[in-house]
Amino acid sequence: MPNVKRSRTSKLLLPEFLVEYFDILKAETHDAQLHIYFEEKSIIPAEFKEKLLESKGFLPEIIVESKTLECS
């Protein structure tokens, strides 16, 4: 069962599509940076339900840098 507190917080801080289509596996801090690890949920967005979809497998991880949440 997902952590309810984490779920509420993530809805405030993350874009809606990340909360809807990804689970947070873990969050860690390294050198004053927050590293969040996601896993894609196995759900199809409503606008694609009628289309034939094909999995393309896994892609390498990426780093997304955001300076929007800076604390003093």
Summarize, please.
The chain has 72 residues and is an alpha+beta fold.
Characterise this structure:
The chain is an alpha+beta fold and 72 residues long. The protein is built from 2 helices and 2 strands; from the N terminus they run ααββ. A two-stranded antiparallel sheet has the order 1-2. A hairpin with a 2-residue loop joins strand 1 (22-30) and strand 2. It is globular. The model has no long low-confidence stretch (mean pLDDT 77).
Sheet-strand content, in percent, reads 15-25%
Number of strands: 2
Order of strands in the sheet with the most strands?
Answer: 1-2
Oligomeric state of shown chains: single chain
Globally, the shape reads: globular
Category by helix and strand content? alpha+beta
List segments where confidence is low: pLDDT < 50 over at least 5 consecutive residues: none
| Overall pLDDT score | 77
Helix fraction?
10-25%
Distance between the termini: 34 Å
Q: Characterize the largest beta sheet: strand count, sense, and whether it forms a barrel.
A: 2 strands, antiparallel
Radius of gyration over C-alpha positions, nearest whole angstrom: 15 Å
